[in-house]
Amino acid sequence: MSTQIAVRLPDEMVQVVDALVASGRVRSRASIVERALAREIRRMETERDVAVLRGDPAPDDLAPLAAWAARQPLDLD
Question: pLDDT tier at 63 (50, 70, 90 boundaries)?
Fold first, then answer.
């Protein structure tokens, strides 16, 4: 399954993409955008994996919530 989305790109990027399509190096605008996104997702996943292998601490997304909860009064009545 796929979903169609609209993306706004600078004119210069669109010119390059259109030139690649016209030259036959890529099938379509969509295919080059899909390949670029897939490459970026793999890069981000690789960065995450490297951080895990290094033993870097994972970001604690719940830290702000925990800090807020710690400041709330307890109603023990």
Answer: confident
